[in-house]
Amino acid sequence: MNGFDLFQKHFSNSYPEERDCTLDSNGAAATVCKFNRLGTLIAVGSTDGRIFIYEFVTKGVVKAWNGHVKPIISLSWSRNGKRLLSSSVDGSVSVWDVLNTTQPLHRLSFGVGSTTQYALFNPRNENQILVYLILLNSSVCSSPVVRNLLTGQETRLAPIGSKSEAADEPISTAIFDRRGNFIITGSTKAYRVIRCYQLQDLLNIKQGSTLQPIQRFQDIVNKTLWKCICTSGDGDYICGGSSKSHSLNIWERSTGALVKILHGHKGELLSDVQWHPNKPVIISVSAGTGSVTVWTQAHVENWSAFAPDFTELEENLKYVEKEGEFDTFDEDASDNGMENEKKEEEEMEILDVTTIEAPDYLQSSDEEELEDFSTDLENGKSLWFVPVVPEIDLVEEETIIKSESRPNSATKTRNPGKSQAKSKRSK
Fold first, then answer.
1. What is the pTM of this model?
2. Long-range residue pairs from 125-129, CB within 8 A, at least 24 positions apart, any chain
């Protein structure tokens, strides 16, 4: 059974069911979170402008730095995970090298009278970003801007249609498709209904026509307004975050049925929600306390799944050892038995533990070729983890320096004659 089979056995057609833990924010109030493409790292922005990088398995902070002077609004990872794009309330957009965050690679500002709402990397081009601007001039509607980081060229996107239609339905969100060839925008209308479309249907529809969604999701009872949405890595489940409370509704895309509602603490509001790229794990950010909550599956121990011959004992039993069961060399074994063991060793498959192959569940239908998932950073490969430098206790360093600078007893008694001469002079 390979890794993909194990993944399907334990994680396929699944969704989070309970709260797992809360990430340690080191006293900062989080505002936004983002998984990298592989799901190994989590970027979290805070209200004081700091950016934290968490390791997904250990849930510990592996890197932190001051990115902006005001709260972070959005975060976006590049495809290889080496760059991180951040935007802030101060109107600036910064591109960071994850391994070296002393200075940003690029810091952009779009002039007086505008502020950035969020910024995104092109999924296939880390030198092209999409920035959604909010223009403070009420006579001009907001619009997304595509900027090339190498040339500095900007292209402002305008909605197709008449000026009156553009004014009635201003753009409120924009996003790249998986291949980075198209930009999909949305308006502020119909925040009560989540609609699911096929991208190819959107491309084939004629201008002015109305496209019917393949599925609709809404809270018919409470008439909830949705703050943010996300989907599972395979697209089988859709999660909608409420704007009135810290609650997450999870639907099955194929049937449209509501399968789970996750409730956070009472009195909290939701700020952001993200689904892990390939696991049934969701992280959500509370707008009130700024805490980052991890939601996962309910853990149920089932040892028979790992050992088919496993049986539960109602009482303790004394195990009787068989003759030669734990002997290094079985003296009673026949020659035929030794030959069979040699044949089994020769036929045994040799496992390659050095070559890293891309798991099938990380390859979507939008991938052109099987990507090299090795971690050779010098040759431009993907960044899986951030190297952690061991912290040295400064208190221990100071005590070592003081002990080295302090004269010991041997130096004091090395020249007794000089000390006696000094005492006579003093007298």
1. 0.74
2. 125/180, 126/78, 126/79, 126/80, 126/83, 128/180, 129/76, 129/85, 129/93, 129/95
